[in-house]
Amino acid sequence: MPVLLTFGDSNTHGTPPIIDRAEYRRFPKGIRWPTVTHAALGSDWELVEEGLPGRTAQFDDPVMGDYMNARPALRMALQSHGPIDVMTLMLGTNDVKTRFATTPEQVTAGVAGLLDVAMSLDYQARHGGFRILLICPPPVVETGPIKTEFWGGAARSQALARHYRALAASRGIGFLDAGQVIEVSPIDGVHFDETAHAKLGEAVAKSVADLI
Asked: What positions does the domain SGNH hydrolase-type esterase occupy (predicted)?
């Protein structure tokens, strides 16, 4: 049974567009995109969801906590699960928050570090070799109840796709530009609505199928 590991942030976790910042919500199975992908791939696949709201590609978050840094989290995920056959990686949205003062190149460098971990001889050997699909998240829009956290982030996120594409090509891995498939919700400018989850889930399934 092939195993798919989906590693990411709140949009992999299934967080709906935020209306009330004090309220925790999550789309159910069948709505959030990893489960849509799983259904499209077929029942012979196993799904492991590793999405954490607030996760960054490289930063200890001074507000949300050090554990938002994906670097140790990815190592834990790769040691907790397995053997896996395909891993999707979609991060970078939280890295464009104002408090991190990043450039698109710096965000891409953080993702590159995660790819170096996943593609290391140790982890590839541990899982018997696995494929990777790098997904560039759609650009954020500075609107809604969390817009102040992303001040300046729209411009930074719009430049990520070309950098991620080049990075994926340099590593010889799969690439999907989610911004060509979906848009973020106008409610909060960061998260995906149900329709977007459905479209992205189908697109990821196609991309995963093309990898194997």
From this structure: 7-198
- Summarised one tens digit per residue, pLDDT across range 36-48 is 999 999 999 999 9
Residue 68 to residue 91: CA distance in whole angstroms: 11
In CATH, what number is assigned to the domain containing residue 156? 3.40.50.1110
Burial of residue 197 (number of CB atoms within 10 Å: 0-12, 13-18, 19+) = buried
Confidence bin at 34 (pLDDT 50/70/90): very high
| CA dist., res. 136 & res. 108, Å (int) | 10
Range of the domain at 202: 3-211
CA distance 109 to 191: 23
Pairing of strands 3-8, 86-90: parallel
CA distance 27 to 198: 12
The number of folded domains in the chain is: 1
CA–CA distance, 142 with 150 (Å, rounded to integer): 6
With a threshold of 0.85, does the pTM exceed it? yes
**pLDDT at residue 144 greater than cutoff 90:** yes
How far apart, in whole angstroms, are the C-alpha atoms of residue 175 and residue 167? 9
Q: Find the mean pLDDT for residues 13-19.
A: 97
Structural element, H or E, at residue 50:
strand 46-51
